[in-house]
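Hi Y.,

Following your request, here is the sequence exactly as I used it, all 292 residues.
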Amino acid sequence: MNVMGPQMARTVRNQKIDTRSARTKLTERREPYWTVLSTGCALGYRRGAKGGTWIARLRDDDGKQHYEAIGAADDALGADGFNAFSFQQAQERARGVFARKARELAGEFAPDDGPYTVAKALDAYFSERERRGSKGLAKDRAAANVRILPELCNIEIGKLTTKRLRDWHARLAAAPRLARVGRLTKSRNARAVDPGDGDAVRARRSTANRTLTILKAALNHAFHEGRVTSDESWRRVKPFRGVDAPVVRFLSEDECRRLVNSCEGVFRDLVRAALLTGCRYGELIRMRTSDF
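Below is the corresponding structure, written out as tokens. Let me know if you'd prefer a different format.
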């Protein structure tokens, strides 16, 4: 299997997908638009109703195809290697995926020489999970590609400090989320976190906590494998508390009156019935007078 490392590769051109303006002319479809980077290795761009994404595809020696999501394309956002990736950035990330996957298929590990970085720790952790048939692997790997590697990939795990990890965790919680888009809006925009929106802040902190869990699991795996002598730096980093579930809030009597008064006709009756019974919309519209 011939896989060229990122540092050895040249950027491949494809006029259909290498610029943002070119990608806007493509038809939405599930099958990605592929660009061959080297023998058996390809980078795909999938244009859908919710925006464009990059996908890596590797063909092994038996002809089996292996796919892995890289992240969002820079169709609307600037390419920062975190929230969105340019065509060139996606190629660099894809080549890293190919090299790692080729090692895994060959039953090999990353070379032991050189610093044992966060990227290597994640590779080893995900490889172990894949051997055990762990659920949610693809989702966690995609989260690591987008939220961990862009900032921490080249840092030697023995040199990680508690402050560095806390700062990363805080920035992750404050980072804008990619808003979903519909068929009428073809661009994908970043929605900044409003500090006054408690539920939005909670949701971003919850995402940061899930990502921290992935990173800690990878670092703990490295610690147990003897790759680092202490786990103290990341053990001190604590997740945000009370963010795993949205705050349940009930309308006050005054808010209920204002809601009913703002509605008209049969919809007003439906709203009143919901407030009085606590039934959901589907339950209410199925009700018949014979039920009473």
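The beta strands are 33-38, 41-48, 51-59, 65-72, 177-178, 190-191.

Thanks again,
Q.
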